[in-house]
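Entry:
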Amino acid sequence: MLIYKIKSNYKRLYISILLIIIPLFLSSCFKMRMRDKAIYEEFSNTAYKPKIVRYTIEEREIYYVEVGADTLPMVLFIHGAPGSWIAFKEFMKDSTLLRKARMISVDRPGHGYSGLGKAEISIKKQAALLKPILDLNKNPKAPILVGHSYGGPIIAQMAMDYPELVGPLVMAAPAIDPKNEKVFWVSYPADWFLFRWALPRSIRVTNDEKLSHVEELNKMLPYWQQLHNPTTLIHGEKDGLVPIENSYFGEKMMLNAPLEVIYDPKLNHLIPWKRPDLIKNAILKYLWE
């Protein structure tokens, strides 16, 4: 009995240490913000120079980076969690896309320079906070929205709420199925005050979003069949973070949307980095239509 208690105490101590050390490690890995000078240097060899924009809505500042002629069709990129506009940086430097599109990549509320650390757990509210970007479109074609992971339900919500402003959707590993929302056990102790203080702000926001995600996805259930947007679902069968069943859910629910599905048996969750060509080709297809 004494041995069991000692082992149990060591286990608790081990877990506690991990909960402190891992976030500190993550904070050094997730460098998701770039200063203006570094952004201009990053795009110094591209045909179009970046435009850095900040706007305020409902007392929140939203930050995004834009490239390309503003008369071209708009492509709006929305990242997952944790993340920032930088997740789609390489797309915005792509010469083929630059010739055909105005590209905008945004820091979602609570991430990057959009109020880092101040979570917005409502998917509907996030969509509303990002709507002003849609209003900037100067092209007759409605904007193409690209969402990775948590960005998937955001672009779906934007299409539900602003159908006249949203065009085709490209959903890469979208976290959209409430029955297949994968919550890891560490999310619960990470929400305790004892450990929360040690977490980087980006991870705290991610955890807040994670713990509320099922409830938020359930709110969307009645509205999926309202979507008529041409949509491409891209998912890896080896995705251990957002199971491929999420995209199966999309197939089942988006009955009135023209769908194309791309399922890769070797691909994991990191589609924008591992297989950017799949996203790029989907964008180009919609730009040509």
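The longest helix spans residues 2-29.
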